[in-house]
Each structure stands twice: as C-alpha cells, then as structure tokens.
Amino acid sequence: MATTDAPFRFFDLPGELRNMIYRQAVVTSDEKNPIIVNATGYARSALLQTCKQAYSEAYRIHQLENIFEVPILDLDATAPIKFRDVMMFAKVRGVLHKKDTTPYVVVIWFTAKNKSEGVKLWPNLMVWLEYVHRGHNLLHKFFTRDAYRIYNGDPREMAIRFILDRMFQETIDRRRMHWSRVERIFQETARPLLRRCTERFAQ
Q1: Which residue from 16, 44, 63, 77 has the least number of CB within 10 angstroms?
Q2: pLDDT per residue over 108-125, tens digit each?
Q3: Quick one: CA torsion of 97, 93, 83, 45, rounded to 10 degrees?
C-alpha cells in the first residue's frame, strides 16, 4: 500500500466549507427513512469515528439535522432513556448546547393481543414511570399524540392508552411523594383496571 507524508489539510478549510462536507457525510435520514434507535444504540456515520476534532465538529450536525425514530416495545423504555442520557452527556461535555433538541419521534408498539406473552408489562411500566417521577418528562405526552400507534381498532387498546396517559400525569403531579408510595397507589388502583384489558399486566 502506498504511503505519503503529505499533511492532511482538511482542517485548514474554512469552517463553513467543512460543515457543508460534514452534512453530506452525516445527514443520512429523513422523515421516511429515520435512524432507528434501540437499546444498544444506533448507526452513526464512520466520519464521527475518524478523530476527535471531526467528531466535535460533526456530532452536533449529526444529532440536530437527522431524524431519529425511537421504538418502545411492550412499554420497555430502555431505548429512549438511553438515547436521552446520551444527549444529556453530550451537553455536559460541551459537544451539544444546553438548548439543543434532537428531532425524534417515539413509536409505542403495543397491542392487547401481542404475541410476546412472556414480556412483563407492569415492571417495564414501573421503570418508565419511576424515571419520569425523578424529574425527567420523558415521552409522557406522546400518549396523546399520533406517534402512539393503535392496531386492529381494539377498544381495549384505547382503554389502556387512556389509563396510561392518566398514570403518567399523576406521576408528575406526585413527584413530591416518595416513589414507593406512588408505585403502591398504582398497584392498588391502576393495575386492576389494566388487567381487565389484558392479563399481560398481571405478570
């Protein structure tokens, strides 16, 4: 393989020109083809792995100008929680600005007739609500938006949607209470209602 001692002059280019090149390399998604985020992360441009300076200059473009889709399957919010934590860490490091907001949509995949019977919905929901209780307004509003996908027109799913929406709002209203008490209230009030919709909440 041929080698050269010629210096790499990319970073001598004007910042605006470098940003144009970065956009061509790292902005790879749109509303029809979002970047899918899961519990282990998401695909990133190889350019972000070349060197620290390229990462620091291109990461903000990558995060703010791409469209991300964060699926939640069976109320397991691991993926959006980790995604949010990554964003917060980037702000602490100064790679993102404090007011930066990444464009993303959350798709909640859930049906009362879901075949994954072994999944424990109630523990997943409690982890998610506890995260919200600690002060993170993570996704609770999405239950009343179009990002929540209801399948088969099952009225039980609409009932579940309504109950969950109320649980998220009550979690926020009860932030001054200890989480264990809030969890106990939901155990006694909301869980029986959810079990009427599907026994999957009994696990």
Answers
A1: 16
A2: 766 555 555 567 889 999
A3: 90
Please give the Cα distance from 3 to 16 (Å, whole number).
30
> What is the pLDDT averaged over residues 161-181?
92
Report the C-alpha gap between 159 and 193 in whole angstroms. 9
- Shared domain for 56 and 118, answered yes or no, is no
How many domains does the structure of the chain reveal?
2
Give the long-range contacts of residues 43-52, CB within 8 A, separation 24 or more: 47/22
Is 147 domain-assigned?
no
For residue 187, the model assigns a pLDDT of 97
Question: What is the distance between the alpha carbons of residues 98 and 95, in angstroms, rounded to a whole number?
Answer: 10
**pTM over 0.85, yes/no:** no
Instruction: Return the residue matching tokens 């990002």.
Output: 147
The mean pLDDT value for 24-30 works out to 92
Cβ-contact 165, 96 below 8 angstroms: no
Distance CA 49, CA 36 (A): 19
Domain interval for residue 190 = 113-136+153-203
pLDDT at 68 over 70: yes
Angle at 79 between CA 76 and CA 81, to 5 degrees: 90
First and final C-alpha spacing in the chain: 60
Same domain as 79, residue 40: yes
Residue 166 CA to residue 184 CA, distance in Å, equals 16
